[in-house]
Amino acid sequence: PTPTPTPAPTPTPTPTPTPVPTPVPTPVPTPRPTPAPTPAPTPVPTPGPTPVPTPAPTPKPTLTPMPSPTPVPTPAPTPAPTPAPEEPMPEEPMPEEPMPGNGPVPGGQAPTGQLPTGICGFEHNSGGDWPYCDTWSNAEGDDFDWTEGSSTPSRNTGPSKAFEGNKFLYMEASRRRWGENIELKSRPLTIGAFTKLTFAYSMYGWDVNKLEVRVGWDVLWLKVGNQGYQWKTAAVDLSAYAGSTVELSFVAYRGGSYRGDIAIDAVAFQWGAPRNPIMGPPGALGPQAPPGPLAPPRPPDSVAPMSLA
Q: InterPro entries from the entry (predicted)?
């Protein structure tokens, strides 16, 4: 048999898709910002000045007139009785010979024990064992000697003139070391009742150390440190040594620099009612002080150069 041909399938046409139109977005209008209204500044009221109340005037007190004082009658003065004339007292005859320690020294050299008279001003050096007023001499065994002069050579220390007369004795502190001392010693003196040693001293200077008055090793009077520009005076009671023969000393100590000069002048002995008082009324004693240590040294300048005035 003859095969029957199979008809070819007819292709089904594919429909063409219809394009879908894309909608265009409608622009939304942006609203403009509405400006906020600026508020007008509120004016701040300025406070007016507070009125100060004026105080009412205080009425003045009315013064009551004082009554006039009643005059007091002045009594008539009573005449003083006329004293009867007194008979003059007979004068006592003066002793022909001077009392011990109270008269001139024959031959210019006082015997041992007799107190000197008058005031020793160190006006000259007579030489011998006791060159000053036949009573005083530089001691042996100290560090250096007292100097006789009418002024001291260094500036800002020591006196510029004598307390009495023209000269005095002084410790020259230049070119010395701290703590060194000088001693002016008396010959042996017999002390009577109510005896005092009076003298003038100068302790002017930034580095003044101390000055002592001694009997042996007993310190009877002591002064420490700067005492000012002017001369000072002192009196030392010696009545505790009445009847004893002693040796008195002036001992000065060098301070921390050349500004430590110490001077003495007008040395005298007084007893009873003083004949030549230089310190005031009888019985007035100078200040007493117990022995004390040396004044402390200042920063090192112990060997200071001489400073001429």
A: ConA-like_dom_sf (IPR013320), MAM_dom (IPR000998), MAM_domain-containing (IPR051560)
